[in-house]
Amino acid sequence: MAHASFKRERSPSPTPTSSGRRREKSSQGQRRRSRSPSRQPKRQKTDSHFRQGAGAATPLSACTLCLGRHPHKVYACASKSLWDGSPAYCRKNDKNRLQDPTGKILCSNWQTENGCSESVHDDKHECSGCGKRDHGAQSCPRGEKA
Ligand SMILES: [Zn+2]
Ligand SMILES: [Zn+2]
Ligand SMILES: [Zn+2]
Which of 16, 38, 58, 64 could form a disulfide with 111 if both were Cys (CB 3.0 to 4.6 A apart)? Predict the structure, then answer.
């Protein structure tokens, strides 16, 4: 009464019975593909590693408020301190504009990589990170290094 139907015998493995001579017993081909070494999403101390690849991967822009380049919502950044913990120079007003300690709204273009070509509001061309007038947030020496 043992219902012994060995499934082994009818295994649907594609065993070619006619051409049984092409049977290399090298199993290295399969071994290799299981361990792909290019899968390490860690990046902890790869600062210099990060900027390779000719211009393809641009580093993150510095946040105009905290000058940090770590991934965060820079447009919504409301940090009161710079990325390194020192007090921030600017703050955001209720319209999300950068305001210097005197309450002056700074030019936001000035803080970008391209800068601002306007000359009608020179007084707004202050670095939002430190208040200097000869550079913007992207080239501020207090900014986080790219
Ligand atoms: Zn920020
Ligand atoms: Zn401007
Ligand atoms: Zn600056």
Answer: 64
Ligand showing the shortest atom-to-Cα distance for residue 79 = 1
Evaluate whether residue 26 is within a structural domain.
no
In a domain, 76, yes or no: yes
pTM (predicted TM-score): 0.61
**Residues 91-122 pLDDT 10s:** 999 999 999 999 999 999 999 999 999 999 99
Q: How many residues does the chain have?
A: 146
What range defines the domain where residue 120 resides? Answer: 57-146
What's the CA-to-centroid distance between 88 and ligand 2, angstroms?
A: 21
89: buried, middle or exposed (CB in 10 Å: 19+, 13-18, 0-12)?
A: buried
Ion ligand 1: residue ranges with CB closer than 5 A: 63, 65-66, 77
